[in-house]
Amino acid sequence: MTDRPCWKILLIDEDPEVYDLTQEFFSGGCRRAEIVWAHQRAAAVQALQEGRFDAALVGDNVEGHSGLEIVQKAGPVPFPVILFTQAIRTEYSEKVLLESGVDFYVSQQEVTPDLLVHLVDNLIDGKRLRLQLQQARLSAGVQRLVYRRTAVNDLPSAGCECALWEIELDPSRPDVCCEDLFISPQIGEITGLAVDEYPDTLDSWLERIHPQDAPLITRQFDDLIFGQREALDVELRVRHKDGSWRWLACTAKLICDAQGRPLRVSGAVRDISHQKASQKEQERLLSQLTEALRVQSRLLTENQRQRALVEQLLEIAPLGICFLEGPEHRLTLCNPAFISYGLHHSPVLGRPAAEVWPELAPELIPILDHVYTSGQSFRSIDLPLQMPGWPEERFFTLSFSLIPGDQDQPAGILAVIEDCSEQVLVRKNAMAERDLLQALIQSIQDEIWFCDLQGNLSALNPAAAAASGILNPMGAKTLHELVDQIEVRRDDGNPRPESEPPLLLALQGKTLQGEEHIRIPDTGEWKVRQYSAAPVRRYSGEILGAVMLARDITVQKQAAQAMQEAHAALSAANISLQAAHAALCKSESRLRRLVDSNIFGVMYVDLHGRISGANQALLEVLNCTHADLEDDNLRWDDLIPEEYREIDRQARSEADLRGGCKPREIEILLRDGQRLPVMVGYALLDETPTVYACFLLDMTEMRRAQRTLQQYAERLEHSNRDLREFALVASHDLQEPLRKVEMFTRLLEKRLAEKLDAEDRELLQRTQDAAARMKRMINDLLSLSEVSKSEQPFVTVDLNEIASGVLSDLEVRIKRSGGQVIVEPLPRVCGDPVQMHQLLQNLIGNALKFKHPDRPPVVHVYARVIPGSGSNPAHVEINVKDNGIGFDMKDADRIFQPFRRLHERSRFEGSGMGLPICRRIVERHHGSLQVYSEPGVGTMFTVILPLPPQDHTPDLAPPHLHTPV
């Protein structure tokens, strides 16, 4: 393998293991590499500045400096620089790397030997090609150049003998070429022309083509533009500066936009004059051989010397040559090159072709018969053959020519065979690499989006086209159509502006990356997407379009959040564990102090009822001493009366199962025969029930206190009942004088109608109004007192039905005010239907009454469920919001006090009891009533009520809008 091409690669890293790893990577493959190791900063900077290497691999750390800092210190580097770190460092942005002169960034963890060799090969060739193109732009003075790496990579390359060319087309008229014609400097080596002598138009170049070849390339060029052929591939002659003709192989490919309109033609030409000369020489040699064979066939018996000459020529011929004689096509002559191909079974001389090539006979014999009888030559290019004993398939170029004999009889057929397996393999490998690259892009699971300058989605990979789970294009052809069809939010939860999609920002020259939340149209589910977008530029810096890569990271986000929560929970658990340990120690100390403090009795009882230990408090309760314990004179079973022994046994059984039991209230017998009420509880001291810790509390004082509390409760209930009866009687007794005042004032007004002047009538009217207002206040006071004493049982109430009834009752007031009431779906609650109706009617009526003078009232009623957590039950929040006059929040407490008003009675009617009644209703339903208001803007009342246990989610119904007819 010493003939392999060799690179000279500079490695910058102070770690010897990185050097060994790099040596291992470049030890095999189609390339050899001389690795020059620079492990000191000064030497590394000097080596980068000298420019005598093919490429440089720059590692993580050299004498405390990062590889990126060394590249920046060296300044512009004329060969490719690959940042080759142990792991990807996120602080190295694309902008920083490009400005520092780094051509590629890769980590040692994700690279393989083949990938690194292939990467270095592409970067070296790509940088050399870019330098050539830049030199061509400067020398030719071309203002607009078009170059696409993907198009050039699809074309064959032949080293320095290959020249690149490109022609701009008008998409609306592809048959008209633009003035932009680019040809790389290698054309000067082919044509002998200097840069300032290059023809500047396509027609000028066509004039230098041989007249016999010009129609062929013109026809193929037209077929390529109009889609009648996939690529241009032609051999032609071009006039050299010295007047000679040079043979060129011209290949080209048509580049189209996303709509299939032709944009440019990119191609390459290479000098094949020496191949043509070699082919001509081979033809001349073949002609000589043919002539020699003809002479040999005629004078074989007369001139052995000439036969020897022919055999000598055959011996040195580079092609496989054999002679098939007679109609049976017997193999009478073959040269060493033919034998080396292995296209036969030994021995072969003197045997018919059907026996020499039995596998090929069905196809080969008819061709030989046709050549033998018709005299027409036959040529087959890249013919695949598989012979027994061959490890793989091989390819050959076959030529059969008839050799005339005496008296117009054919002497035989001259067969020329050339093994072209290597050339075919090279072409296949090139096509396979191209297909592999395309397949790699197509198989990437991440979305890849491309758009042109007009915002058209020019290209996208299958993952992007089929990503209905993250983005559903829904037939969108442009970015603006796509933006209108999807809902996107930023990472902070705010909607993303329509003018800020990543691809549109990338078209403005910005490089950005981030995360966004996208709502899937089909399911309504939100997904988290990570994206990166950047502009696609020409080498001149002009923006051609934009590209974006996107990935669904919803699962990763959820996992990260779960990990954070788990970490927080673990930290909290650790803290809790430490606190529990400290608390345990503290609790043990407190328990010991508690037992010793003699606040309640503690004793230890075994399975046989023997009291083995007790504190002083227990001994005092039992009127015993420690001597009684030591003499074994105390047994717990003897202290329990017969009727309480079953309760005591159940308490011990519960302690056996759970380690402890709920305290039971029993009585014990004292030595003097009296019974003492006590509260008793058991706890196991060990996992095996052998000894119980028994806690005993004297309940004598507690029973006495309970009897006292029961007496107080009965007295309080009697007092409340008397107060309610008094309120009812007082309200009725107060109404009787008011009725007489009303009656007498009407009688006076009727009897003295002709005698009363205007002032007297006003006094009578004011008296009647005061009596009516007093009557309303008494009725409202009675309603307030009846809210709490209502004995109506709570049932499940559908607030939607209640709201519908309220709107029906208020229909006249709504119509008179010219406003509207909007009721969104409300839940079911547990309560009194009549009081729920009164509550909503008072709140909505207040919103209609206190309307703003400059606008009609709009009342919005809606609800929100507050989920329960732990022991907290679920609640519902009902809001009644208006756009009325509002009030200052410093008066928020006053509006819930009976008969308190914020406005003059002449401006707004009412007694001031509506809101106090509402608060009393809400409190009876175990809820709360809150208010928020702003003067001139409006008021919102919030009612919070518990939900029924089986209904934590409200029944939704269509919003009800009540507007005046």
What keyword list fits this structure?
965 residues; six-stranded antiparallel β-sheet; six-stranded mixed β-sheet; 36 strands; 25% strand; elongated
Question: How would you portray this structure in words?
Answer:
A six-stranded antiparallel sheet has the order 19-18-23-22-21-20, with helices on both faces. By secondary structure, it is of the alpha+beta class. A hairpin with a 5-residue loop joins strand 26 (664-669) and strand 27. Helix 2 crosses helix 3, helix 10 (273-299) runs antiparallel to helix 11 (304-316) and helix 25 runs parallel beside helix 29.
How does the SSE layout of this entry go?
Elements: E1 6-12, H1 16-25, E2 32-38, H2 41-50, E3 55-58, E4 61-62, E5 65-66, H3 67-74, E6 81-85, H4 94-100, E7 104-107, H5 113-140, H6 149-153, E8 162-170, E9 173-183, H7 186-191, H8 202-206, H9 214-225, E10 231-239, E11 245-256, E12 262-271, H10 273-299, H11 304-316, E13 320-325, E14 330-334, H12 336-341, H13 353-356, H14 361-374, E15 378-385, E16 394-404, E17 410-419, H15 421-443, E18 447-452, E19 459-460, H16 462-465, H17 479-485, E20 487-490, H18 502-507, E21 512-519, E22 526-537, E23 543-552, H19 554-597, E24 601-606, E25 611-614, H20 616-622, H21 626-630, H22 636-639, H23 645-658, E26 664-669, E27 675-684, E28 691-698, H24 700-751, H25 758-789, E29 795-798, H26 799-809, H27 811-817, E30 820-823, E31 828-831, H28 833-849, E32 858-866, E33 875-881, H29 914-924, E34 928-934, E35 938-946, E36 960-962
